[in-house]
């Protein structure tokens, strides 16, 4: 079946280990777009954190799409929201209280790319998030925000060993009604229970009238597995986790050796 949509994770997939786009990646994506293939960045980042890469890849217009916040929001590159699934204020407050009680750094993102934290001693991971996403950082207690304030996702962040230790308790506390996923060694994320990259990709494919066999996905981590389970062609990066590789149909080279471009050339381009 001809590939008509390629979904790409960003960190450690689209970008190399230095957070840069390889020239080979840009060329392969441009070829795909020129052939009429939708190239959809599918990421935990907000739109503000995706925009520089969309520009560098020359992906623009209201008929091109991005999946942001790990699937909480589907929107056009022009910013038109197709669908969104948020977390309510009560759960936002519970997450904040949990982080404070267990001394785990915590922040949230709203649907406008803003990052909020109630932590006064802001963890370096949160600072990097603000910088990467061009979002800045707002230090606010829940009581300082509107009673109907909703979030796209909450993130416990920081030292991987601390997150390893607290992850089972987070799952026990929130896992019965929220989607809890370890998105990387520095991120433990909580979202609306219907949210994941795979469901968002499935929803977008339905809107575009595409069959799963016409969709290819590339990723490297646990939060990419729902994409792999949906698409007809799942490609794990050579630098990806063992779990990602086990779920994929194919394993390509690493993000530093042009593995993404090689996968696009081999499995998607005519």
Automatic annotation (TrEMBL):
Keywords: Hydrolase. InterPro entries: Cof (IPR000150), HAD-like_sf (IPR036412), HAD-SF_hydro_IIB (IPR006379), HAD_sf (IPR023214). One of its GO terms (cellular component) is cytosol. It comes from the Bacteria. GO terms for molecular function: magnesium ion binding; phosphatase activity. It holds the Pfam family Hydrolase_3. This is Hydrolase. It comes from Lactiplantibacillus fabifermentans T30PCM01. The lineage of its organism: Bacteria, Bacillati, Bacillota, Bacilli, Lactobacillales.
